[in-house]
């Protein structure tokens, strides 16, 4: 049975354009795999605390020496990593806020990018430890950034995913959503979703 994880990060919840496009892609997935299971990690409805010294201290402390608070932090990180490990594909609904990803999505990445767990350093450089699988990014933006050299969202997402071993990344863009291009851009994104193989 196929399994998929959707990671949502729009402050508008299910009304956000990235979430709505994600829903379209998931319907396509369900049509292709009727018996599949879809898990949802909503980073706004269920926020993850931003990376701080307490988190890094917990991750760097040996298991037997951790406090109850540290064990809880590591347990959350383990859970987030296992959510990725246990599925066949990921859908990341990622709006652009102020030229970058939402801070909620950055907090999620900070909790899953772990030396010795999702990547490791070797004499030949870093190596991703996650088993590669398809990742679909729904990148929504109010303006036009992809061709303007102002995209600090998708390149970063692709780099950090690749750093952890996830290289099968497909990006579906919807730009100009605060401009006259909105309807045409959303229609184009839906056409792309309809055309891709899952």
From TrEMBL:
Gene3D superfamilies in the cross-refs: 3.40.50.360
Domain of life: Bacteria
Cofactor(s) the record lists: FMN
Domain Flavodoxin-like fold residue range list: 3-192
Co-factor: note: Binds 1 FMN per subunit.
MF GO annotations: electron transfer activity; FMN binding; oxidoreductase activity, acting on NAD(P)H as acceptor; oxidoreductase activity, acting on NAD(P)H, quinone or similar compound as acceptor
Keywords: Flavoprotein, FMN, NAD, Oxidoreductase
Record field: catalytic activity: N,N-dimethyl-1,4-phenylenediamine + anthranilate + 2 NAD(+) = 2-(4-dimethylaminophenyl)diazenylbenzoate + 2 NADH + 2 H(+); 2 a quinone + NADH + H(+) = 2 a 1,4-benzosemiquinone + NAD(+)
Pfam families (alphabetical): Flavodoxin_2
Record InterPro entries: Flavodoxin_fold, Flavoprotein-like_sf, FMN-dep_NADH:Q_OxRdtase_AzoR1, NADH:quinone_OxRdtase_FMN_depd
Binding-site residues, FMN: 10, 96-99, 140-143
Major enzyme class: oxidoreductase
Known EC number: 1.6.5.-, 1.7.1.17
Function: Also exhibits azoreductase activity. Catalyzes the reductive cleavage of the azo bond in aromatic azo compounds to the corresponding amines. Quinone reductase that provides resistance to thiol-specific stress caused by electrophilic quinones.
HAMAP family: Azoreductase_type1
Assembly, per entry: Homodimer.
Family: Belongs to the azoreductase type 1 family.
Name of this protein: FMN dependent NADH:quinone oxidoreductase
Gene from which the chain derives: azoR
